[in-house]
Amino acid sequence: MSTAWSWYVIVLIAINIGGCVWLLWWTARRRPGDPAPTETSHVWDGDITEYNKPLPRWWINLFYITIVFSIGYLAWYPGLGSFAGYGGWSSQLEHEREKEKQDARLEETFSVYAGQPLPALAADPDAMRLGRSIFANTCATCHGSTAQGATGYPDLTDDVWHWGGEPEQVLATVLDGREGVMPPWEKVLTGMGGDQAMTAIVAYTRSLSQPPGGDYFAARGKPLYEGLCVACHGADGTGNEALGAPDLTDDYWLYGGSSEALFASIGEGRHGIMPAHRELLGETRARLVAAYVWSLSNPAPAAAAAGTAQ
Asked: In which pathway does it act (predicted)?
């Protein structure tokens, strides 16, 4: 808050409090010539008279006490513009204290799961209930309540993992996040192969998962692919988990498998970000939600681990 606005608020408060004091004083005092409380001359139906009796002194004093209290309240709490108040209270400090209390309670609840491997957590029904709840509160916004994702957001219930689907890889993804960058290649490709270069490389990319046999554009796209794409996706198109480069030989397309979607992915590039949740959730809660996510695509190992645990 600027100094000008701060003084505006302070002056406005002072005027209001002063106005209340003056109004009480002015209306409570009787003046010479005022009619008696029973002589207002307002009479109805011959015997109903309106009186003008003043408030009892104790009642008026309560109003004054309320005003004094309000002044003390504004001095103790930050109610006068940018003045912080003598009590040092702030909503931020109040929030931090409450957060510390609730975090301590959560730590106590989650402490029994600290450091446990994901398969062991996936075999624990109580851990999975907690993991599902954390997922619903934190992850469902992007991946959906069923974890099946959407265009641009991975399906967590299948066996396709661009960054690896082993338990520790899934945990690393949740804790520290991932950032996948597909650079735009349209200008580079046009310079290498002319106006039909984009058509050719899209045809070849599609042929890796749907070999058409004898496709003219796919044949033209192969050398373009080998010149630009093998560094990330590999010579055979199976991708690279270390880079998050997807496997192009399956039928899963994160951003859509239509020709329009492939033209956009290759020509304009993609930039996918999975935020890090280490600071937001802490390691134990991240471990619980990672175990839940891992169990969605590995139901059999999770069930086997549960049977072994029993």
From this structure: Energy metabolism; oxidative phosphorylation
Name the phi and psi angles at 179, rounded to 5.
Answer: -140, 110
CA 17/CA 245 separation, integer angstroms: 67
Fold for 181-274, please state it. Cytochrome Bc1 Complex; Chain D, domain 2 (1.10.760)
Question: Residue 84, class by beta-carbon neighbours within 10 Å (0-12 exposed, 13-18 middle, 19+ buried)?
Answer: exposed
Sequential pLDDT tens for the chain (310 residues): 788 998 999 999 999 999 999 999 988 887 777 777 777 778 888 778 887 777 888 999 999 999 999 999 999 998 888 888 888 888 899 999 999 999 888 888 899 999 999 999 999 999 999 999 999 999 999 999 999 999 999 999 999 999 999 999 999 999 999 999 999 999 999 998 888 999 999 999 999 998 766 688 999 999 999 999 999 999 999 999 999 999 999 989 999 999 999 999 999 999 999 999 999 999 999 999 999 999 999 987 666 666 665 5
3-state secondary structure of 159: coil
Give the sign of the dihedral formed by CA 203, CA 207, CA 212, CA 216.
positive
pTM for the full predicted model:
0.69
- Closest to 253 (Cα-Cα) out of 149, 181, 179: 149
Domain 102-177+275-309 falls under CATH 1.10.760.10:
yes
Please work out, in degrees rounded to the nearest 5, the angle formed at the alpha carbon of residue 166 by the alpha carbons of 163 and 167.
Answer: 115
Q: Are 160 and 151 in contact (CB under 8 A)?
A: no
- Per the listing, tokens 């209306």 go with 27
Tell me where in the chain the CATH 1.10.760.10 domain(s) lie.
102-177+275-309, 181-274
